[in-house]
């Protein structure tokens, strides 16, 4: 893992861990793995899953999934027209 990813992981873990400081590190990692739907041994938990789940724990439960918010379209008709190469006009 690269240094910036380690720093990001430690920062996210610190923020999340401060919400429940009475948990041990292994309890915290196990809880995060369960929230992510990981049922296998903790040694098989990927770094990406851990970082993603830590990011999502800090977000509002109604917040859009990171990376998908940029693709969100409020106006479905305008999105279809734009996908067909037609620039919709404002009414």
Automatic annotation (TrEMBL):
Pfam families: DUF1040
Xref: InterPro entries: DUF1040 (IPR009383), YihD_sf (IPR038134)
Domain of life of the source: Bacteria
Gene3D superfamilies: Protein of unknown function DUF1040
Protein's recorded name: DUF1040 family protein
Organism: Salinivibrio costicola subsp. alcaliphilus
């Amino acid at each position: 893992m690269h240094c910036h990813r380690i720093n990001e992981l430690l920062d996210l873990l610190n923020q999340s861990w401060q919400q429940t400081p009475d948990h041990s590190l292994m309890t915290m990692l196990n809880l995060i793995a369960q929230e992510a739907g990981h049922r296998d041994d903790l040694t098989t938990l990927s770094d990406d899953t851990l970082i993603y789940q830590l990011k999502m724990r800090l977000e509002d439960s109604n917040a859009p999934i990171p990376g998908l918010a940029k693709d969100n379209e409020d106006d479905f008709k305008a999105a279809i027209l734009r996908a067909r190469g037609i620039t919709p006009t404002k009414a």
